[in-house]
């Protein structure tokens, strides 16, 4: 049985094995001569950022509920609402948890057929999952931009909104363990399927719930594409090719925006929109969080509003297209922002 501390070594051992096996080589498993190089400590640390249910990988740090509220207002409320209750962009994070749930570890509302929705805090059993996800994926338009103290603070604010911790609570790498003991749905996870985390953490010795048998006959000689993204949706969520690890068989499709950036002497407007995170909230022809670029172009068709749009994007705000605010775009260079505005007002052509 390997230890969790062995996971980086095991990963790269498995990777080397996959490369060697794929090449049809016959030399021993531990003979990796000519296959890559040893990963540096810095490379391992950059890859190994997950936080496990037993808090392995949890970084040092701390954050208060009040600090989290300030960060939330500036970076999170635009999509999740001031109190994590919004259902406009994503499903609500907070709600449906009662004081009794903290005692039992089972959220009673999950058993009610008349309850309108299942929020994040109703379902999640481990507080480490919330820390890990916020740290690696939020804010939506700038993932991994929060410092560890900021992640602690945001999570403290959410825990307070769910009445799990008091308003003067400070969450840190020690008190988070106390929080786990009162998570409302901590007993809502079953290990009977015998998948991860297995006996080591569940304490149960049960067989897997699958009886799959390896099949090595009647294999297809070529893949078949069953479905594909329509042209208008290709760049809706950035460049898919950049969102897959360079390990294994999965490769995302390269979008038109990325192709334009790669073949031109300087980044295209579409590529700038992708690189600046604009396509996380806006698509060319369909609404996401904000209006489509075709809607914007149609609204201001024939009007000289470049300066006004430039100022609006730079400062951020709400009111023109609804009450979901656009965060200020302070990092985009003036020249690039002018290019983006002209491209949007021209209908955001992808060719």
Written overview of the protein:
It contains 15 helices and two strands. The protein has 351 residues and is mainly α. Helices cover 36% and strands 2% of the residues. The protein has three domains: 44 residues, no CATH class; 119 residues, Cytochrome Bc1 Complex, Chain D, domain 2 (Orthogonal Bundle), CATH 1.10.760; 114 residues, Cytochrome Bc1 Complex, Chain D, domain 2 (Orthogonal Bundle). The N terminus is likely disordered. It has a two-stranded antiparallel ribbon with strand order 1-2.
Q: Mind sketching the topology for me?
A:
Elements: H1 7-22, H2 41-47, E1 62-64, H3 65-75, H4 77-80, H5 99-104, H6 120-123, H7 127-137, H8 148-161, E2 170-172, H9 175-180, H10 198-202, H11 256-263, H12 269-275, H13 293-299, H14 306-315, H15 334-345
Antiparallel strand pairs: 1-2
